[in-house]
Amino acid sequence: MKVDLKRLVPTYSARHGEFEVVTVPPMRYLMIDGHGDPNVAAEYEDSLATLYPMAYALKFLSKKELERDYVVPPLEALWWADDMAAFTTARDTSQWDWTVLSLVPEWIDDAHVEAARAAVARKGAPRLDALRVETLDEGLCVQTLHLGPYDAEGPVLERMHDEVIPARGLVRTGRHHEIYLSDPRRAAPERLRTILRQPVAEA
Question: Burial, 193: exposed, middle or buried (Cβ in 10 Å; 0-12, 13-18, 19+)?
Fold first, then answer.
């Protein structure tokens, strides 16, 4: 049976129009860092052109060698900037730093990752040297589901940062996290579904 990893973790679900406080468990990801506007930065395109082949190489290895098949998880990314207004009121994409992410199943170990890396290297991937596997432990977070274009996230994030989080006696800690539940190549912009997550702590 093919496993859908995002169905195993409750925090891969969020509701539109609601800001929920959740506790996210530690999870391992493929990660690649970069900087700049994701719409035009070659570094971002090259990162995805490396991340996806690695994610699929791990899936095929798991299915063939471990007899455990699964759905490749949705793309995720961490976003930050020196001034977080670049994500809300200013929306200056040129100032963005980011880490693209792909969830790694818990039964995949470092040896499997290196075997997949070797397989991808034989076919070529532009940023394979920049790819790493790391555990992300976000813990307490506020999250919501955004419906619509990515460029329309600003007001939602502004409300989350400036109203919702302070009103609940919390402060922002880690990096802004997005989970892309829709494929922008197949869904119209107004139908895109994105989980917006912000790690927090008690004020």
Answer: middle
